């Protein structure tokens, strides 16, 4: 065996290792494994090293191949599938991280070729030497270190909190174009780089592409962060409006019950007088009327659970359901505090109730109902179950159920899925004939997630 060649080839394939670390680092909290992130990264690193040695050995027996890059395309495909399997988050986000890794590391590949072109003008990319490999690895470490230093925290934050799928569907295009440009610019013959100012023009183009890549990342991450922060503020404002609405309703209830208590002595006198006069029919009519007044001012519709924020949302939409003649049965067993943030919990409940009310309005009042159950059967898990009736008409796009409102785009349900995913839970939406059901499970912790 040609051990020097094997180790050289393994070193060329070895760029997979830092690329794997780059891809896994921002999504380490979403790894689908029982190992800790550190142990998992260690296992991945060991697996990559062994794989590179095996590929180097295989390359030594297939030296007739034009370049080791011939086998990189299937390696990328396999790596992407493994990435999708071991990381539990939106595949579009993972694909974006993956293309960013390819784009960033394509600059190190160009550094390798440029070094060899400068030191070995009569060579070609078909016969790589060991001259450019150290430069490639050095540029990898510098480039990855600079990227993580500048964008690591915000990169991870955007992956965790920015859920606009319409953006994630296209944001990967720019890094993919950068990678394609770098691959296209690989010099077939190094002698070409010594014609006129080709070498310096190539350096200028590479430098410009690198700057554009970093500027694009900075612009996208900053914009995504700002959009998400604004959306969070809007959700908090909406929650405050709901709490204010509940407070106004409670004030009205207090005023009404205060009047009833004040008038109670008159009520007792009237009841006594009717009883003494044996006007039992009028007495029964009077009691029924009084009972209706008590029912209309019943405080139970203002108090669904001990969790203030969730109670405000339920009271807000419960009042809307009552005005729309939609029977609303709610069983909510929630403590006063949870590890789930108030905003996230209210986003889930608000979207569920809004979708249920809109769906209920598509059928006659006699057929309407909304049933909501919230409990913690397991101390570490929160379960939310909702069912409601609707007209049975459902639009689906790419496997996503759209809300029943006119021209709905499924944004509310997508938001619920993303929030459930944030807490390592699941959100399932089903329908059968004219009944829609939603099942959400969130993982709870002793502290904030």
Helix/strand order: HHHHHHHHHHHEHEEEEHEE
User: What general form does the structure show?
Assistant: elongated
Radius of gyration: 32 Å
Number of domains: 2
The quaternary organization reads as single chain
Unreliable spans: none
Major sheet:
5 strands, mixed
Counting DSSP E segments of at least 2 residues, the number of strands comes to 7
Question: What's the average pLDDT?
Answer: 82
| End-to-end C-alpha gap | 53 Å
Q: Which structural class best describes the helix and strand composition? A: alpha+beta
Topology:
Elements: H1 3-13, H2 16-24, H3 37-60, H4 72-86, H5 91-119, H6 133-161, H7 165-168, H8 173-184, H9 198-276, H10 280-296, H11 308-323, E1 328-332, H12 342-360, E2 370-375, E3 381-389, E4 396-397, E5 400-401, H13 411-422, E6 426-432, E7 435-443
Overview of the structural elements:
It is a single chain. The chain is an alpha+beta fold and 449 residues long. The chain folds into two domains: 3-228, no CATH class; 305-449, Histidine kinase-like ATPase, C-terminal domain (Heat Shock Protein 90). 61% of the residues lie in helices and 9% in strands. The chain has 13 helices and seven strands. Strands 1-2-3-7-6 form a five-stranded mixed sheet. Strands 4-5 form a two-stranded antiparallel sheet.
